[in-house]
Every structure is written in C-alpha cells, then in structure tokens.
C-alpha cells in the first residue's frame, strides 16, 4: 500500500483511479485523465506541468508537439522512452493550457507522491518552472536548469519544459543538453549514491 491519506495498491491501480477523480475543478473539463505512463520501476522519471490538448484527447502524456521534442531529446541522450516514467503535476488538462493553480496541484499531489514511491526513480527530471517550483521550491528555471540537486537519496535535475523550448527556440539547445546530461548520469551511475532513497521526496 502506498500513499498518504489516500493509498493505492499498485501503480496501475493509481493510474486507473485518476480517471474517476473529481478532487479538483479540472475533472469537469477533461476528456481523459492523463496519469502518466512507463514501467512500474524506472531509473528516470520526468515530471511536467499538466496535459495539453493532444494528451487530453488520447489519455497519454507528452504525445503532442512538446512530446515529439521530448522524444528527440531522449533519442539524442540514448534513453529509450519505454524505459522512463513520464507524468505531470496535474493529471487533467487545465483549460486553454493555462498553468495549474495551487489548489489543483495540491489536490493532485497525492497521485504524484505515490507514483514516485511506486516507480522509485533515482533521477527525477522536472520540466519547466512550475515543476521546478513544486519539486524543489525554487524560482528561476534559467538559473537552475541543468544543475543536479541531491534530495533524500534521489537526484533532481530541472530543465526547461519542451513546450517552452518550442515557443522560444533559443532554449531548445539547453533542453537537449540537459536531457543528455541526465543520460550521462544514468550511464555513469553517478546518481547512484549510498543513501537510502526517501519515499516522499517532496
Ligand atoms: S487534476 Fe488531479 S486532482 Fe484534479 S481531478 Fe484530475 S486527477 Fe483529480
């Protein structure tokens, strides 16, 4: 059993559970919840902000234009998408792709927290300013991107959101470089400290 005040028997059970969740207003406008996807255990987890239109339509994370840029970054970093777990701070699409509000992220937090416990990643790569703020409590993605933060036995590596890199192409090389650095961390085993990974992270 994993989770705080709401607990889940399995990662797959959690993913199904998002489809009936109505803990915040985003449930009213979603077509599909987008819990995340990937193996039940993964060395690397990406945490974005929230689903977009294509994700809402398909129920899968990062399958639109931003997802294609993430796929490119993974390929260049020699990381197989099927080996990583990919999810977001909120599992339902904020209307008009607005930022998720604090109360929505609070309401959805138990899902992400339990996903981290189940998947038990060594490295968490946060995508964009909102995920950086939520996971590391830091503002200023340009200052923190590409840096490695050790938190309770895990490595957290913030980078730009691929949607941001599409809007502002000058960010794209930094995004690609940061994901490559994540790949290097995995292959060098540098991220694998002796610390016991704390289940909570944040
Ligand atoms: S965003 Fe999260 S908390 Fe809100 S309805 Fe969707 S699954 Fe539930």
Describe the structure.
With 202 residues, the protein is α/β, with parallel strands linked by helices. The chain has a single domain (8-187), classed as Uracil-DNA glycosylase-like domain (Uracil-DNA Glycosylase, subunit E). Helices cover 39% and strands 13% of the residues. It has eight helices and seven strands. It has a five-stranded mixed beta sheet, sandwiched between helices. Strands 1-2 form a two-stranded antiparallel ribbon. Strand 6 (149-151) and strand 7 (154-159) form a beta hairpin. Helix 1 (11-18) packs antiparallel against helix 4 (102-119) and helix 3 (65-76) packs across helix 8 (172-188). The radius of gyration is 16 Å and the shape is globular. The relative contact order is 0.17. The mean pLDDT is 93.
- Arithmetic mean of pLDDT: 93
Query: Spatial order of the strands in the main sheet?
Result: 4-3-5-7-6
Query: Per DSSP, what share of the residues sits in E-state strands of 2 or more residues?
Result: 5-15%
The CATH homologous superfamily? Uracil-DNA glycosylase-like domain
- Tally of extended strands? 7
Any idea what the CATH architecture is? 3-Layer(aba) Sandwich
Q: Helices and strands: which structural class?
A: alpha/beta
Level-1 CATH class name: Alpha Beta
List bound small molecules: iron/sulfur cluster
**Number of alpha- plus pi-helical segments:** 8
Radius of gyration: 16 Å
Task: Detail the topology: elements first, then pairings.
Elements: E1 2-3, E2 7-8, H1 11-18, E3 44-48, H2 53-58, H3 65-76, E4 85-88, H4 102-119, E5 123-127, H5 129-136, H6 141-144, E6 149-151, E7 154-159, H7 162-167, H8 172-188
Residues 18, 21-24, 26-27, 33, 90-92, 104, 107-108 line the site of iron/sulfur cluster.
